[in-house]
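Hello, quick one for you while I still have it in my head. A protein chain has come my way and I'm curious about its shape. I'm sending you its amino acid sequence along with the backbone structure tokens. I'd be grateful if you could look everything over and explain what you see. Here's the protein in full, and shout if anything looks odd to you:
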Amino acid sequence: MSAAGLLRAAPTEACRPWPRHVLTPEEWRAFAASLAAEPTLALLALWADTIRIHALFHDRQSGDFIPASVPVVSGRYAPLSPHRPAAAWFERMIADLWGHRPEDAPDPRPWLDHGKWPTTAPLSSRPLPRGGPPEPPEFLESEGDDLSQIPVGPIHAGIIEPGHFRFTVSGETIVRLETRLGYAHKGALQLMRGKTPRAAARFAARLSGDTTVAHSIAFARATEAAAGTEAPPRAAALRGLMGELERIANHLGDCGAIAGDASFAYLPTRFTLHREAILRAGAAAFAHRLMMDIVIPGGVALDIAPAGADAILPALAAIEAELPDLVGIYDNHASLTDRMVGTGIVSRDLAGRLAAGGVVGRASGRAADLRLHPGYPPFETLKPSAVTRAEGDVDARMRVRFAEITDSLRLVRALLAALPEGAVSVPLPMASGEGIGWAEGFRGDIWHWLRLDGGLIASVFMRDPSWLHWPLLEQAIRGNIVADFPLINRSINASYSGVDL
């Protein structure tokens, strides 16, 4: 039986909007082995609770999204990483947080746990006190003549998140890059357990602060699915409006930063000016520059200010007026585009195998956008344009951002012009249930899962797009020179905090 067939044949437990299929350990083992022959079944997320491993898959042939789980026996389960390489990061995270170990996994090293927590497996049913000093970090070995290593970070120049990069190089050419994260670990999943969804929403909003709106939307939708309720139409429209403003601001910032990493100073100045205008418009319309804590389970915390549209529309017009000239400057400076074209290529095959979303996936020909499929309000009729490129390099990722800025300007105008009347929130019932929520952030697909018990969070997981982008960075950098790492890293722009939980 095919891998997808094994999933669908398993009995289900209640989970909205898709029932969760429960496999026995033997079925899971057979399923894991069959993944090698079924490349169209994409792994989107892998997580755990105290007794089970959970996963979310996308069947690209049928278009179905399939949640699945397997009981953990004696702290062990069959790994997915032999045939789904991106699963290795999830499996290391599960071992650190819950203590469940994948049997004979390719990479069993710790990841989030740097040996400095007071207990091991803090989310397990019985966390144990830590014994002994932390072990030094392990890095993969490289063999060959004239190889050397360059350690960078976790503290970097500038105001950026902490992460360690270990380069193995031959001269200036990068042979291998290995990332070590976990420095921004916040214990968010533990802090959310036992709280009401509206109290826990503040932690979801801060998982990755530059994506606060999109993560809040995904968390709210997961809560609403678990509780069997739905946000009012006006709240859904306001969520969509804030999400597109967030997308515009971040794409503007990334376009400027990528050009800045190529030592082209003019574009960062202009893109930063327009980004600042969008942030100020967000503050005028929603009382916060990042619109943080406005999206809540059940709707939104406040309505758009009476003069909100008057603050947003001039900022959009200014971007619309200058963006063609900025793109023209980018096109007509060979010293800039020569640094971009052919640099940091993510092949279509690699993007597909790791199910990369957002700009990274679309620049490599993978047309995945959660606003379109499976979709969510208010995008059922207000369709975003699917912008894709085939080249998969820094230049393609830059051009996808240019196109998405233009499309988001259109979406924001349309949303402002047709905001429905009515309430902006509904009360949440003190319900029990399980739900999955999603949103398309500026980095790509965001997935949240939670289980409610009497209105309180019993278990939760938040999946940022960067879970699948960091492994892509490690592959895209190979064969490039060290000096191009900032360009490639910024063009992919994976979140450190988003995966450090």
